[in-house]
Amino acid sequence: MKTSSSLTRRYFIAGTGAAISTTALATTVAPVVASDPEQAKCEQSELIRLFSDWDACDREAWHVESDEESDALCDRMHQIEIAMIAIPATTAAEFAAKIIAFTSYGDWLPSREFIAESAAVCGASRASELAGATAERDP
Questions:
Q1: Which among 1, 9, 98, 7 has a CA at the least distance from the CA of 47?
Q2: Do residues 33 and 39 touch, judged by C-beta distance below 8 A?
Q3: CA–CA distance from 37 to each of 24, 32, 53, 124 (Å)?
Q4: Smallest Cα–Cα separation from 105: which of 30, 33, 25, 6?
Q5: Residues 82, 91 contacting (CB under 8 angstroms)
Q6: Looking at residue 135, what is its pLDDT?
Q7: N or C: which end of the chain has fewer CB within 10 A?
Q8: Looking only at Cα atoms, what is the longest distance across the chain?
């Protein structure tokens, strides 16, 4: 049995399916988001388009039958997350999209890069320290 991070992610996805359905969550939240004027302004932003792709992969991951399909989806989601981290959030909706993707709907802890961006957005006292530590880790 292989022990890749994708398989681990698949294990958690399968294990949390009974606890909460992302479809149910999206159905509950969608009416609130759709009526938000800020959301309407950023619907066509690159960050929101990337999040939509990520979300489609996440939904599909709940229904795949093989490890190969799961691995391919997880790899695609990871590539989308890398592209998303490079784009600064300029609206609350974009920031929310990053939170959802980077934590996989709250199942995972956010990356150091995302914490550094969050600290900068809210003016946290350690923002520059976190940004510097993140830059030092980048190859």
A1: 98
A2: yes
A3: 23, 10, 22, 27
A4: 25
A5: no
A6: 59
A7: C
A8: 49
Which residue is it, tokens 């909460």? Answer: 20
Half-sphere exposure of 126 (CA within 13 A, CB side): 7
Residues 6 or more apart from 51 whose CB is under 8 A from it? Answer: 80, 84, 94, 97, 98, 100, 101
Q: Which amino acid type is present at position 5?
A: S
Give dist(CA 77, CA 51) in Å, integer.
9
The whole-number pLDDT of residue 82 equals 93
Helices (DSSP H) in 44-126: which residue ranges?
Answer: 46-61, 67-85, 92-103, 112-122
Mean pLDDT by 10 residues, the chain (139 residues): 46 43 39 54 80 94 91 94 92 91 85 83 82 61
CA angle 47, 53, 56 (to 5 degrees): 140
Cβ burial of 94 (10 Å; 0-12, 13-18, 19+) is buried
